[in-house]
Design a protein that fits this description.
Blueprint: E1 3-7, E2 13-17, E3 20-25, E4 29-31, E5 36-38, H1 39-43, E6 53-54, H2 76-90, E7 96-101, H3 107-119, E8 124-129, H4 130-136, E9 142-149, E10 153-161, E11 164-174, H5 178-197, H6 205-225, E12 227-232, E13 235-240, H7 241-262, E14 269-271, E15 287-290, H8 295-302, H9 304-307, E16 316-317, E17 319-321, E18 333-334, E19 341-344, E20 347-350, E21 355-360, E22 363-367, E23 376-381, E24 384-389, E25 395-397, E26 400-402, E27 406-407, E28 413-415, E29 422-426
Parallel strand pairs: 1-7, 7-8, 8-16, 9-14, 14-15
Antiparallel strand pairs: 1-2, 2-3, 4-5, 4-6, 9-10, 10-11, 11-17, 12-13, 15-18, 19-20, 19-29, 21-22, 21-23, 23-24, 24-27, 25-26, 25-28, 28-29
Helix pairs in contact: 2-3, 4-8, 5-6, 5-7
């Protein structure tokens, strides 16, 4: 008998057979008078048919009445049912499926979900909290966080690990989901096309759809290469990684604030694989472990007997046996201390406002007012300093010439042709009385 997992996340409902992912279907629906498109087919029409789109039905799963001419779309639950049926039509579902659900689902939503599943083609073998399951197989003893990206929000779950991994709490950061990041990036690419090509991709629905279809590829390439030449409708615009990081910063700062509020000093922040596709997503906290894309399937397979329950009345499992200490292998990415000030000569300059690097009478200078010929600009984004070098300027960072924008960490040294003149990025710690 085949076993697998159906992960409920509106970024993409994912089906696993064993530990192999076989389907990823976005939580999007396009509702027409006679038919309903869901998943990838809907996503590829969501921008060209904006008035027919519903991408909230998983987050707002309920029997709340919807205004629709389609008789199959009475409420959000109908759309969830259509989505599950579509998934069953597009892949061979395992004979036994564990539902992995987010911790922010209410009791009413879970009950409604089980009712919908019973009417669909999915045979439920159990119900498990995604965060507790993922952390159970990866974390040492302690109190840790699991951070999941959803379509319209971020879910931060606190999990205590002793003999068992137990879900303690689950809190959301609204308006900081995948859709919000994509909308922020779309503004960056749109501004670039307008400035460089006098072309507005948002002027037509078809061009906007193309923009959103291509954007994940562009962002991925920018994260690997530092910049990207985006091509759309025979037009080309250059966008660099710094611009995408700047656009993402306000959203990331809200997520970081909740992480800092909930985290334990020695805890680890376990982030889902989706954060690896967000510029700056790997720097959400000082101690991060990036989970593999199939972590939920691996955890469920190893704890199947604990999760499996009566198919007629499956119970939600929020506590699972923790991995033995000898089985825990955690790769922690520690972020370097973020720079807060610049040390130049005997002065420490706070960079709350932009600072400008230039040469005046042959000497390196740092000033708060723009000089006639700046060599670089240092700006503060959500408490982190970024260095952007102007075209034609020759500056070195830690001994290597730089051209693309970079984030500054404490200890970074910025210099010019004269090795004696150095600007050092430092971190100034403040302590309460």
């Amino acid at each position: 008998m085949t076993k697998g997992v159906l992960e409920i996340n509106d970024c993409g409902l994912r089906v696993f057979s064993g530990c192999d992912e076989v389907l990823d279907s976005p939580g999007v629906a396009v509702i027409e008078a006679q038919k309903i498109l869901v998943g990838t087919a809907a996503l590829m029409r969501s921008r060209s048919h904006p008035t027919q789109v519903n991408n909230q039905f998983w987050r707002r799963l309920s029997l709340e009445t919807l205004k629709s001419e389609n008789a199959r779309c009475r409420h959000h639950a109908d759309l969830a049912y259509c989505h599950l049926q579509d998934i069953a039509d597009h892949c061979d579902l395992p004979q036994e499926v564990v539902l992995a659900v987010p911790g922010n689902f209410t009791h009413e939503q879970l009950a409604l979900l089980l009712g919908i599943v019973r009417e669909s083609s999915v045979e439920v073998a159990g119900l498990v909290d995604t965060a507790a399951a993922c952390v159970s197989g990866a974390a040492p003893s302690g109190t840790h966080l699991h951070v999941e990206l959803q379509r319209h929000q971020t879910l931060v779950s606190r999990v205590s690990v002793r003999e068992q991994a137990v879900l303690e709490s689950a809190e959301t950061v609204n308006d900081s989901g995948l859709q919000n990041f994509q909308d922020a990036w779309a503004r960056v690419f749109t501004d670039a096309f307008i400035m460089q090509c006098r072309f507005d991709p948002l002027h037509s629905a078809e061009a906007e759809q193309q923009l959103y279809d291509l954007m994940p590829q562009w962002v991925g390439r920018a994260m690997r290469q530092g910049e990207i030449m985006a091509e759309l409708d025979d037009r080309t615009a250059k966008v660099n990684l710094r611009q995408l990081q700047d656009a993402s910063a306000p959203l990331l700062s809200r997520v970081r604030a909740l992480i800092e509020n909930l985290s334990h000093p020695k805890g680890i922040v376990f982030v889902s694989h989706r954060w690896a596709e967000i510029p700056g997503g790997a720097q959400l906290a000082e101690r991060i472990h990036l989970l593999p894309h199939n972590s939920i399937a691996t955890a469920a397979e190893g704890r199947w007997k604990e999760i499996r329950s009566d198919s007629q009345a499956p119970r939600l499992v929020k506590a699972l046996s923790a991995a033995a200490p000898t089985e825990v292998v955690v790769q922690i990415s520690t972020t370097e201390a973020a720079a807060t000030h610049l040390l130049f000569g005997s002065r420490a300059l706070a960079a709350q406002q932009p600072l400008f690097v230039s040469w005046q009478t042959g000497k390196l200078q740092v000033t708060p007012t723009p000089p006639q010929h700046p060599a670089a600009t240092i700006t503060n984004h959500a408490g982190r300093l970024a260095l952007r070098v102007d075209a034609g300027a020759q500056l070195v960072l830690n001994g290597e010439e730089i051209a693309t924008p970079v984030n500054l960490s404490a200890g970074d040294r910025i210099g010019g042709p004269d090795p004696e003149e150095v600007i050092t990025a430092i971190s100034v710690e403040q302590y309460g009385a």
